[in-house]
Amino acid sequence: MTDLSLHIPDTGPASDEAGLRDYWQLLKPRLMSLSVFTALVGLVIAPGGVHPFLGATSILWIALGAGASGALNMWFDADIDRVMKRTRSRPIPSGRVEPSDALALGLFLSVLSVVMLGLTANWVAAFWLAFTIFFYTVIYSMWLKRTTSWNTVIGGLAGAFPPMIGWAAATGSTPLDAWLLVALIFMWTPPHFWALALFVRMDYHVARIPMLTVTHGRDATRRQAFLYAVGLAVVSLATALSGIGGPLTLAVAVVLNGVFLKGAWDMWRRTDAEADADGHAAEKALFKWSLVYLFVHFAVFVVEAALHPYGGW
């Protein structure tokens, strides 16, 4: 098993004075936006409703918690980011932000977001936010990412918790339906990231990150992506038949999963030579569709909740 030295490189003094944009980039705004969106859906569709001000402040603290995770991840992964083509321009490896500043920002936002979510919403939601930050920073970034090809599967839990945190912020509880939202993102994460890993695989080779493409090869990665796509379809249909689903969710889920499975199947049946020849067209197509898939799937939960009361089946 490939292992990496766990250290922060000495990037030297910052090449330019860091600006607000650099600190914003530390928070991984794209990842934050996904967390905010899914957390908002969980909060909105939870039974009983929530006061708009409480809902808005809860989403703010969840967003800051997601940003804290991003800053701590960038602090710890500075050595990896420095050698990967798609990450070497990030604030720390480029020298615009000192690692110690990123660490301080991440810790400050972690404490602030968890405490404020507990005080303004409830401590159930605050506990799961704290656990998510810990899981992403320690379990995924510091351990799984550098030691095992299971990093994408197990580590995907960190990105799967936000809708349940939103639900907990509204209700103070985490019932089965909230966990189904977690399961949906959990099963979606491997094929989403493995499709990406297939067309940026050299980055992971250079950085010696044990992604499945590095440890088991591209054929195994395509096969596993398809199998997880099948599992994703099962979870998707389960959510459609649960209290958060309904006829519209079921119809949309059938279409979304049909396209997803077709894309994963097409990707699996290709050879490495075919993928190289067309610039990984199937892999890129599946990656892009996976983003559409998650957005539409969660959006339809909101529409379904507006059409009938919770548990309308």
UniProtKB/TrEMBL annotation:
InterPro entries the record matches: Protohaem_IX_farnesylTrfase (IPR006369), UbiA_prenyltransferase (IPR000537), UbiA_prenylTrfase_CS (IPR030470), UbiA_sf (IPR044878)
A Pfam family reported for this protein in Swiss-Prot or TrEMBL: UbiA
GO molecular function: protoheme IX farnesyltransferase activity
Entry annotated with the keyword Cell membrane: yes
GO CC term (a single one): plasma membrane
Gene Ontology biological-process annotations: heme O biosynthetic process
Keywords: Cell membrane, Heme biosynthesis, Membrane, Transferase, Transmembrane, Transmembrane helix
Places the protein is found: Cell membrane
Reactions catalysed: heme b + (2E,6E)-farnesyl diphosphate + H2O = Fe(II)-heme o + diphosphate
Source organism, top-level taxon: Bacteria
Transmembrane residue ranges: 31-50, 56-76, 97-119, 125-143, 150-172, 178-204, 225-242, 248-265, 286-307
Record bears the keyword Signal: no
Biological pathway: Porphyrin-containing compound metabolism; heme O biosynthesis; heme O from protoheme: step 1/1
Any further remark recorded for this protein: Carbon 2 of the heme B porphyrin ring is defined according to the Fischer nomenclature.
NCBIfam families recorded: cyoE_ctaB, PRK04375.1-2
Complex formation: Interacts with CtaA.
Function: Converts heme B (protoheme IX) to heme O by substitution of the vinyl group on carbon 2 of heme B porphyrin ring with a hydroxyethyl farnesyl side group.
Family designation: Belongs to the UbiA prenyltransferase family. Protoheme IX farnesyltransferase subfamily.
UniProt name for this protein: Protoheme IX farnesyltransferase
Source organism (scientific name): Jannaschia rubra
